[in-house]
């Protein structure tokens, strides 16, 4: 009969990675538990054991970062005469494909597969050492995601991280962990803690959707355009009456090029056309933005907008209020515009108030 892994009893020591049953631990929380035996070890030995744990966590991440590789290379060079340095070098060789598999290790792996039967355990019932390592794995991968992407994972991206953490736990401990309310709370607490730590270090990080918003009014969100806006923009820019200044409606290929142009402007100038979103409905009703331009030989920043006339007619009580609100927000916020810049306004809308808006622009330029 295939044996199940026995549930360990007691607390988990972060130094030796072992359970110490019926032992009172010092410190609070899994990350601070150190057993009596480890507390009596010389500091250099404890430090080397901690480094071994760091190497193990770095190697078994979903995606090894540049910092992880640097950590392994540093430990392999600096502590080559210690266990942590040799472990780091072994892991580097393995990751780079320089290590020849040990036949004995392969045989051991086959034996292990036949010894243990996979268990299914809710997260809340995990033993201390597995829970601690899962918590570390989750935090490391969320933090790495935030470093590489510069926003907080959510939706499918957060789901992918959770699935990878569960897979690694399953492959390592032969346990299928069932995410439960306790795990959901852990994910939320981990993200909140990391966001707080980033803030304390002077960095603000948001969710992807929140990071796109550049400004807002009482009724509008003005945010960066993304490739996911393709269908909404095509529905507006495909209309010849909206794009009359181009003398034709845009095709899907035209809209794709337009989006790419705005993404380049964001990186190059810090601004471009932005999507204008009604908060009430979440509908994308058009675009407005700033562009560097040369007018009569002078460097200037132009404000332009493209609004869907159908959506304007569906909101007759404030259709030009939308134009005014967008215009005022972009201009008076001083978004990416220096005090010395001349500002002009042009419109691809046949709205009756365009002349009044242009008059406001001229007034602003003379202030």
UniProtKB/TrEMBL annotation:
Signal peptide: none annotated. InterPro entries: Acyl_CoA_acyltransferase, GNAT_dom, N-acetyltransferase. Pfam families: Acetyltransf_3 (PF13302). Transmembrane segments: none annotated. Residues 219-310 form the N-acetyltransferase domain. One of its GO terms (molecular function) is acyltransferase activity, transferring groups other than amino-acyl groups. This is N-acetyltransferase domain-containing protein.
């Amino acid at each position: 009969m295939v044996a199940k892994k026995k549930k360990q009893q007691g607390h988990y020591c972060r130094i030796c990675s072992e359970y110490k049953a019926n032992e009172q631990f010092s410190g609070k929380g899994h990350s601070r538990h150190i057993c009596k035996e480890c507390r009596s070890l010389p500091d250099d030995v404890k430090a080397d054991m901690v480094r071994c744990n760091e190497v193990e966590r770095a190697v078994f991440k979903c995606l090894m970062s540049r910092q992880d590789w640097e950590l392994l290379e540093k430990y392999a060079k600096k502590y080559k005469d210690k266990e942590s340095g040799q472990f780091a070098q072994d892991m580097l060789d393995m990751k780079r494909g320089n290590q020849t598999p040990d036949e004995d290790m392969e045989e051991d792996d086959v034996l292990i597969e036949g010894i243990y039967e996979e268990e299914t355990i809710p997260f809340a019932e995990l033993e201390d050492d597995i829970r601690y390592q899962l918590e570390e794995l989750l935090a490391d991968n969320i933090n790495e995601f935030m470093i590489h992407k510069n926003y907080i994972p959510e939706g499918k991206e957060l789901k992918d991280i959770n699935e990878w953490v569960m897979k690694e736990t399953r492959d390592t401990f032969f346990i299928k962990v069932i995410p439960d309310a306790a795990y959901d709370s852990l994910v939320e607490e981990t993200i909140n803690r990391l966001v707080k730590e980033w803030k304390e270090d002077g960095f603000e990080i948001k969710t992807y959707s929140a990071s796109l918003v550049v400004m807002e009014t009482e009724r509008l969100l003005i945010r960066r355009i993304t490739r996911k806006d393709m269908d909404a923009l095509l529905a507006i820019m495909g209309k010849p009456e909206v794009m009359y200044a181009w003398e034709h409606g845009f095709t899907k290929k035209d809209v794709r090029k337009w989006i790419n142009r705005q993404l380049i402007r964001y990186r190059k100038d810090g601004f471009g056309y932005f999507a204008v979103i009604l908060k009430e409905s979440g509908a994308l009703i058009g675009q407005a933005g700033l562009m560097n331009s040369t007018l009569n030989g002078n460097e200037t920043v132009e404000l332009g907008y493209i609004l869907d006339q159908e959506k304007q007619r569906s909101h007759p009580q404030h259709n030009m209020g939308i134009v005014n609100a967008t215009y005022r927000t972009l201009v008076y916020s001083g978004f990416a515009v220096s005090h010395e810049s001349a500002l002009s306004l042009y419109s691809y809308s046949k709205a009756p108030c365009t002349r009044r808006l242009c008059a406001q622009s001229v007034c602003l330029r003379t202030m």
